[in-house]
Prior knowledge:
Layout: H1 10-37, H2 47-74, H3 103-119, H4 122-151, H5 153-161, H6 172-175, H7 183-217, H8 219-244
Helix pairs in contact: 1-4, 2-3, 2-7, 3-4, 3-7, 7-8
Amino acid sequence: MTLPGTASPPWLLACGDFFFRYRNTVFPLILAGLCIMFPPRLMGGSLALDRWLDLAGLAVVLAGQALRAAVIGFAYIKRGGRNKRVYAASLITTGLFAVCRNPLYLGNGLIVTGLLIIQGNAFACLLGLLAFGFAYRSIVAAEESFLVGKFGAAYLDYCRRVPRWWPDLGRFARATEGIRFDWRRVVAIEYGTVFSWLSGASVLFAYEGVYHLGLAGAGARLLAAAGLILTVGALALAIRHLKKSGRLAPART
């Protein structure tokens, strides 16, 4: 049984399996490599304009994080797989998954795009979008192949009703009707993601400062970045403790 219009070649499925298994290592390396190979550039040669670009990038990151929070708060699907391989115990079609088939990956893409905008080099942004776009497309191909094999006609029907990437926002109200938003689950699951992108954005902010202003001129940025990372790190450890103690258990319905 094949997925109508989405049958993928073996090489793409192999790439998807690779990226799925090693994404937590490969993705940060890709981002770091792009930022090193393509240093930051001032927008229009102006620090003031560059700050506006940083704010725009942060807005995109926050949009991606908000999407992830909405997905997890309404109807969560674990994307970690089993033994680092694609796996799903059940087919989730409610919440944001009734609006878009891959809302978590769409949120991830917005976060990465925002970080690349903050970095400020057009070449890094373009190559990054191509690299991450291919990586997520191949992962989705591998997941679709697995889901078709496991859930068959039920998954095919889901694919016919719900777009792969572009959210059908007209479905949102109906898709979340009667579902209680679980903020505890959001905090328990997302604290690591928030720590990662906030730390990344802080490092990029400091990196920009050193590159444009020199080490001495970027002192304030370096202190601010270090302070933010330490603060968010402490909060992440506190949330981790609450999670392990059971005080962030999902709300009962």
